Amino acid sequence: LQLPISGVFLLIYAMTVGNLGMMTLIFTDSRLHSPMYFFLSVLPFLDICYSSVVTPKLLVNFLASDKSISFEGCVIQLTFFVVHVTAESFLLASMAYDCFMAVCQPLHYGSVMTKGTCLQLVAASYVFGGANSAIQTGNVFALPFCGPNQVTHYFCDIPPLLHLACANTGTAGVILYIFSALVTLLPATIILTSYSLILAAIGRMHSAAGREKALSTCASHFLAIAIFYGTVVFTYVQPHGSTNDTNGQVVSVFYTIIIPMLNPFIYSLRNKEVKDA
Q1: DSSP codes, 23-34
Q2: Which residues contact 210 (CB under 8 A, 6 or more apart)?
Q3: pLDDT tens profile 4-35
């Protein structure tokens, strides 16, 4: 099955990289020069980055007899993966806040969501990503690795690497749990609070057309968010060892390969401005 599966994943990855077209469209069309579309142009960039950390190596492993990765390559893969996944988590929170301001505080939207604010939110997402990556990568590779060297996964992820360490990984597991919870549950709380207030504001709208437009936009956003956070929490924010290797790999496919392809489609699926552009 490796050959047909590699063909499917190659097609998915090509569509993910093809989301560069969404970025180009947003940058070149003046109708899309607004905070919402600025975030929507950063999202596919993050998706392409962290998918590219994992998928090309996976495709090579499907076709090559040598499926090894060097220790240094493993460190680099994990470092950049955690940076971009964490940054995406906080970017989704920024997008939810932007949606909240647009729906609930329309008179203050222009003065609050300035270009500078948007750039600061994206920069903060990367700062959180870099900090979490430094902590998580250091936490894993500070451990001694002296025994089995077969990673039961399709990329260098933290839980399967902890299984290979020749030391007690109790403390490392607690650090993984705490910081994974912080970078997923904190943005998720911001997102849920924002969308709760948005839904309350939509319920007070008198215009049926405005209510329908806001609901369709929020529903598509919430779908992407639910898939992303659901799979990440399932992998990292549950008791250590409660996920078997096969389930971990299957779930990881969603947030490393499937979601990066789907995100731009989901966020622009019901968006008339993007369709017109």
Answers
A1: HHHHHH-GGG-S
A2: none
A3: 989 999 999 998 888 888 888 888 888 888 88
Q: What is the pLDDT of residues 100-138, one digit of tens each?
A: 898 888 888 889 999 999 999 999 999 999 999 999 999
**Mean pLDDT for the chain overall:** 86
Amino acid letter, 271: N
Task: Give yes or no for a contact between 23 and 44, defined as CB atoms under 8 angstroms apart.
Answer: yes
**Is the model's pLDDT at 271 over the cut of 80?**
no
- CA distance linking residue 106 with residue 102, whole number of Å: 5
Q: What is the pTM of this model?
A: 0.88
Q: Measure the CA–CA gap between 127 and 168, rounded to whole angstroms.
A: 30
| CATH code at 2-276 | 1.20.1070.10
Rounded distance between C-alpha atoms, residue 77 and residue 69, angstroms: 10
**242: pLDDT strictly greater than 60:** no
Segment 29-36 long-range contacts (CB within 8 Å, at least 24 positions apart): 29/277, 31/273, 31/276, 31/277, 32/273, 32/274, 32/277, 35/98, 35/113, 35/115, 35/117, 35/118, 36/95, 36/98, 36/99, 36/102
Place of tokens 């997102």: 191
Question: Kind and range of the H or E element at 88?
Answer: helix 71-104
| CB distance 157 to 252 below 8 Å | yes
| CA–CA distances in Å: residue 193 to residues 21, 147, 197, 263 | 32, 46, 6, 21
